[in-house]
Write a structure and sequence with these properties.
Layout (H helix, E strand, L loop, with lengths): L2 E3 L2 E3 L6 E7 L6 H14 L3 E6 L2 H4 L8 H7 L7 H7 L4 H14 L2 E6 L2 H9 L5 E3 L7 H8 L5 E4 L5 H13 L5 E6 L13 H9 L4 E5 L5 H8 L4 E5 L17 H18 L11 H7 L2 E4 L14 E4 L10 H4 L21
Parallel strand pairs: 3-4, 3-10, 4-5, 6-7, 7-8, 8-9, 9-10
Antiparallel strand pairs: 1-2, 11-12
């Protein structure tokens, strides 16, 4: 299956789709949001993704912070988790400005809606695809609501087991939406390399007939490079303009230089995959002739003599009769005198 996001085609034999995940690292500031977009563009990303929500719609006022968020925003912070989320909301006006700036910078604007109201807003503003966060991959009513908008959907699958992911696909397909992708992801921030479980990508590829990708929450490049090797067609990475800014995700996000280097390595890994067809490459042809071996004479041979096994050595270069063809020339007569170490060629035989 190939899915289309804006003018990008995603799937087998298509370039990997790179998502620079800005998330909530704008801290509610349009100025920071613009800087994040600039960083994403400079990194070579295909899309920059934010998060769209109304705190009132997604968490109760006294909802607890996750352990990681306690570490990053402080257990003694005056802001509750609900209050912190309120500061990270993006207004309608800021959405419009961010979308316009993305168009100006020629990068795809994406955002993750966390509630129906936010999905409606993004749809109204013409977002070309939806990302469903792992926190909502079993929120089937919401998943169905978004899928019915009949735009491409990318679903992260952290904190889920296979039956739940199978249900995700079932819910989407029942709406008639055929444009979806599934990402392997680990719901821990930052996550350890050993928790990446990259082999899941291989399993997903065998089960689902849609593009498979990886949302990387590690502080390393290794897991994403391995994901590329396993066939991931979407790679998503969190980033920030400054890891020291206050907020829940800055610490585990790549800084601008790290993001650019990260995506460069992904593109290099993609190049390293090649076509999958085993053939003699153009860059190998000269060495094939020099480094492969041919049949050569082991002694001086006179015209009319028949070649015997004892008359043949196998040596470089490889521009003569190949060793595999030896049996075709044994006991055949030589047309003219040959010196020792002559590379044998078919035209030398009667």
């Amino acid at each position: 299956m190939i899915i289309n996001i804006d003018k990008k085609k995603i799937g087998e034999n298509k370039p990997i789709f790179l998502i620079a995940e800005a998330g909530v690292n704008h801290n509610g500031s349009y100025a920071i949001g613009r800087k994040l977009i600039d960083v994403a563009v400079n990194s070579g990303a295909d899309a920059v993704k934010f998060q769209t929500f109304k705190a009132d719609n997604i968490i109760i006022p006294n909802g607890p912070k996750a352990k990681y968020h306690l570490e990053t925003t402080g257990s003694n912070s005056k802001l509750s988790w609900f209050e912190l989320l309120k500061t990270q909301e993006i207004s309608r006006d800021m959405h419009i400005k961010l979308i316009d700036y993305c168009k100006k910078k020629k990068i795809i604007f994406l955002s993750t809606p966390y509630d129906n109201e936010s999905a409606d807003l993004l749809d109204e503003l013409g977002v070309c695809a939806f990302k469903i966060a792992s926190t909502d991959n079993d929120n089937y009513p919401f998943l169905k609501y978004v899928a019915k908008k009949n735009k491409p959907i990318i679903v992260s699958t952290a904190m889920s087991n296979l039956p739940e992911v199978l249900e995700v696909e079932k819910v989407i397909k029942k709406t008639g939406n055929k444009q979806y992708a599934i990402l392997q992801c680990t719901g821990n921030y930052p996550s350890r390399i050993e928790d990446s479980n990259i082999k899941v990508i291989e399993s997903y590829k065998n089960i689902f007939k849609c593009p498979i990708g990886y949302s990387d929450h590690t502080m390393s490049d290794i897991s994403s490079i391995m994901a590329v090797a396993k066939g991931a067609k979407i790679i998503e990475k969190h980033f920030t303009i400054d890891q020291k800014l206050f907020g829940p995700d800055h610490r585990m996000s790549a800084n601008p230089n790290q993001l650019k280097d990260f995506f460069y390595k992904i593109r290099q890994a993609e190049k390293a995959l090649g076509s999958g067809d085993k053939e003699v490459l153009k860059c190998e042809k000269a060495n094939r002739l020099k480094l492969k071996k041919s049949l050569v004479t082991s002694r001086k041979i006179s015209k009319g003599e028949r070649i015997r096994l004892a008359d043949i050595n196998i040596k470089r270069p490889g521009n003569g009769i190949r060793p595999i063809e030896m049996s075709k020339y044994l006991n055949k007569k030589i047309k003219s005198d040959l010196k020792k170490n002559t590379v044998l060629k078919s035209k030398m035989f009667k």
